[in-house]
Amino acid sequence: MIDNHIHQGNALNIDVRNITWKRCMDLNDRALREVVIGLGGQLNGMPRQDNFVITVASEVMAILCLAIDLEDLKNKLGNIIIGYNLNGEAVTAKELNANGAMAALLKDAINPNLVQTLEHTPVLIHGGPFANIAHGCNSIRATKLGLKLADITITEAGFGADLGAEKFFDIKCSKADISPDVVVIVTTIRALKHNGYGELKEGVSNLTRHIENLKIYGVPIVVALNKFNADTESEIEFVKSICDKQQVNFEISEVWEKGGAGGEALANTIINMLETEKSNYRPLYNLELSLEEKISKIATSIYRANSIYIEPKARREIEKIEKMGYSHFPICMAKNQYSFSDDPTNLGASENFVTTIKEVRIMAGAEFVVALTGNVMVMPGLPKNPSAENIDINKDGIVIGLF
After folding, report:
1. Are 20 and 361 in contact (CB under 8 A)?
2. Per-residue pLDDT tens for 56-96?
3. Nearest to 207 by CA among 219, 222, 217, 220
4. Considering only CA atoms, which of 141, 148, 149, 171 is closest in space to residue 158?
5. 159 partner at 20 to 30 Å CA-CA among 195, 225, 309, 336?
6. Could you tell me which residues come within 8 angstroms of residue 189 by beta carbon, excluding any fewer than 6 positions away?
């Protein structure tokens, strides 16, 4: 609708050089990060530079997961800033008369999906914003429905706790007005060895850092170790000893091998924590801080950066966003999921680094500000050997090579 509006006379005086809304497609294609559209003559529209993002990075996905009801969804969609006019003023989806149609397309999508596990346990699956490039949490509606229907509701925050958990606590809990009672940190021996460049004793520093970070929020913690066949008893005991030193609960999970029975010990530990330990949840920062102060708080307190460096372009964007009246919004950091730093090769418990802020974007509909760090991409590319190379179909019509 943006390009059609421009083609049909541009009544809103949209500046084609300052359109911030990104096209969206749910696939990995690095060639779509920067494109030129409208070529081929006047009938094809106004030529301009454009970009694509993957669906999980789209503001629409974030809004779907943060909307309370259909009316709230429509209002949030209407507040999306699609760009600026020739006077430098924000132009919204509502001014394009797009939010009604957008809400109509999402009228069924806003309802959580009820599915079941192989053991017939009910599960609500709804929404999928990635935690490295979005806010990493399922929908508020699904979480509140779970709270209404069940005695205990377990919800997931994506990727590492420095991303998913931080955004769950500092964005979703605030928006949904909820307060968690227990935090489960999931880890594996393999992941810890990876963070120690092959050495478990080095890699546990990563787990320790996550534990220390989540203690900031005042919620009781249990570490769940997903046990696999290659794990030795001495390795498991070593991880448990680290948790004991941190004075947090520890439990083994064998769900992958034994199904629900493999998670009973963890479930009983959580139930005991709910009955005996008190949560004193508190967010990391006050929303009244400036955008730069909130970014710095996350980078120095959670990532443990020495400081932040805001590139000139990003600083201009921060100043513009604050002048527009959005300084009270929470921060949604876009960072790689492999490292506490913005360098994905810096594993373990990264130290002595500076977090670089390259770009800052206002998500006025989702009501948060995105700060992009390092070289994080919102449109991924395929790896050297994409999975598609292994997928085939045999003569019986059976698809093979998916896993």
Report:
1. yes
2. 889 999 999 999 999 999 999 999 999 999 999 999 999 99
3. 222
4. 171
5. 309
6. 200, 225, 228, 230, 231, 235, 236, 239
DSSP state of 171: I
Fold of 2-105: Domain 2, N(10)-formyltetrahydrofolate synthetase (3.30.1510)
Q: Which CATH architecture is the domain 113-276 placed in?
A: 3-Layer(aba) Sandwich (3.40)
Confidence of residue 29 (pLDDT cuts 50, 70, 90): very high
Of 303, 268, 275, 301, residue with least CA distance to 373: 303
Q: Which residues contact 222 (CB under 8 A, 6 or more apart)?
A: 182, 183, 184, 185, 248, 249, 250, 251, 266, 269, 270, 273
Q: How far apart are the C-alpha atoms of 13 and 84, rounded to whole Å? A: 9
CB-neighbour burial class of residue 213 (10 A; exposed 0-12, middle 13-18, buried 19+): buried
Residue 175's contacts (CB-CB under 8 Å, 6 or more residues apart) are 66, 140, 367
Q: Which of 56, 53, 50, 106 is nearest to 77 (CA)?
A: 106
Judge if pTM exceeds 0.85: yes
User: Going by C-beta distance under 8 Å and a sequence separation of 6 or more, which residues neighbour residue 155?
Assistant: 137, 138, 142, 143, 146, 168
Residue the block writes with tokens 């609708």: 1
Distances (CA, A) of 309 to 186, 305, 374, 386, 401: 31, 10, 10, 35, 44
Residue 174: which of 294, 89, 60, 70 has the closest Cα?
294
- Give tens-digit pLDDT for 172-223: 999 999 999 999 999 999 999 999 999 999 999 999 999 999 999 999 999 9
**Bridging pattern class, strands 35-37 and 307-310:** unpaired
CATH 3.10.410.10 fits 291-373, yes or no: yes
For the record, the structure tokens of 14 come out as 């949209």
DSSP conformation class of 161? I
